[in-house]
Amino acid sequence: MTRAIHPVLLCGGSGTRLWPLSRKSYPKQFVKLTGEESLYQASARRLSGEGFAAPSVVTAADFRFIVIEQLAALDIAAADILIEPSARNTAAAICAAALALDAREPGGLMLVAPSDHVIPDAVRFRSAVQAAAPAAEAGQLVTFGIRPDRAETGYGWLELSQQTTDFAPVPQPLHSFVEKPDREKAEALLAGGMHLWNAGIFLFSTTTVLEAFATHAPEVLEITRKAYEEAVKDLSFTRLAPDPWETLPDISIDYAVMERAPNLTVVPYGGAWSDLGDWQSVWREAGPDGSGTAIYGPATPIDCQDTLLQATSEAQQLVGIGLKDIIAVAMPDAVLVAHKDRAQEVKQAVAALKAKSAPQAETLPRDYRPWGWYESLVIGPRFQVKRIVVNPGAALSLQSHHHRAEHWIVVEGTAKVTVDSDVRLVTENQSVFIPLGSKHRMENPGKLPLTLIEVQTGSYLGEDDIIRYEDVYARGQGARG
Asked: Cα–Cα distance between 231 and 342 in angstroms, integer?
């Protein structure tokens, strides 16, 4: 009987190719791109249930509360959440997850999966994973290959040792890895019938993968082990030690281990799959209509062909007239218009915006915090108006500001407000004033979200003008902590 499989969800990517919907402050894995759940939630749900243990998550500090909140919405609790001090690619992330799992369950089976892929048939995929488990138990490094349906140049490919016609999930030796090909080579790979797309999903035991690191990437293993052994617990998180972590090479698991190891197995997967790596893949996943047009949100196409129109705000209406092969994405603070064939170049727009210090390059109008979220409605030279939503049972830190006063008006729900020694309940249509320098806190004691309008006035309105005295989320000082 195969032991339970331990999913490891990789949640550190920034998803710049899906700008402006995906940004560094809230990347695509946490966004509801294709349904009522985020890609991360869909991945966690797909890898849960019979045969699967509680997931482990590897993520960045800024996302640590998002991963807990989105899992909690599914009634899933993580076995471990590892915090990377910085992004060091998949080799370091997988090595850290293997060390953590091996400490809990020596030799445990771990299924490593990006958290931003779309795999609609969860039952079929779980069956493929179960079919791969005996090979992983036997000491193989198992990778999953996707049945290709086009000459894709944006993916790496896997060369089979024997041809498959039905793409049944039958393990076989992997012949070789193929780098992202040019168009001519991709068409040859597709026509030859001996290659699959590399999904970047792996199954192996902790013993097998740690031995592979020791053999093929000893520096990665040595440094990651040091970062893990010097890690500190922070609430329910494990913060990997930053000093050794920063010396790790930026290298993928493919380059560090998989392409060097002799014990490689591939399992074909014939179901639908997408990594949603660019806007063209989102257009494809949306299921374009007879004219090739796909829409999300309040968008209206008129005489458009092979076009994606995506609008995110009900306060907007996006209209396309006579468009062909166009990607148009409208958000309240940024709009993208691009030819569909150049969707991979969107990351260049992010770089250009960063070069001119435009906040839209990395930051969404809505800022997510462990207690809820806020968004700026109006910003002036000495004032700012925000909408703030506090989750049921959540509380902001006890804090003060050097440079601004605040006025809170409750519009939905009830707030428990502390201003210095005064503690009171503030209900809908009531308000409270927080003088400059006063220690204050807001809590939501109710069972429904609390919404308020905050008016700030002062000489400096930056988020780093916060002194925290108490915080249930242990965030420390700084804008985000």
From this structure: 42
Each domain of the chain, given as residue ranges in start order, spans 5-269, 279-355, 366-470
The two tokens of residue 60 are 């960045």
Cβ atoms within 10 A of the Cβ of 89, count?
18
DSSP-derived pairing of the beta strands 264-269 and 172-178 = antiparallel
pLDDT value at 444 more than 60: yes
Q: What is the pLDDT of residues 285-318, one digit of tens each?
A: 988 999 999 999 999 999 999 999 999 988 899 9
Please state, in angstroms and rounded to a whole number, the distance separating the CA atoms of residues 299 and 288. 14
The CATH class given to the 366-470 domain equals mainly beta
d(CA 54, CA 44): 9
Helix, strand, or coil (residue 232): strand
The predicted structure's pLDDT at residue 36: 87
At 480 the pLDDT is 56
CA 345, chain centre distance (Å):
20
Asked whether the domain spanning 366-470 has the same topology as the one spanning 5-269, the reply is no
**Average pLDDT, stretch 5-29?**
92
Q: Which class would CATH give 5-269?
A: alpha beta
How far apart CA 50 and CA 5 sit, in angstroms, is 10
Q: Using alpha carbons only, what angle is made at residue 96 by residues 112 and 266, rounded to the nearest 5 degrees?
A: 30
**What are the tens digits of pLDDT across the range 445-455?**
999 999 999 99
Please state, in angstroms and rounded to a whole number, the distance separating the CA atoms of residues 226 and 247. Answer: 11
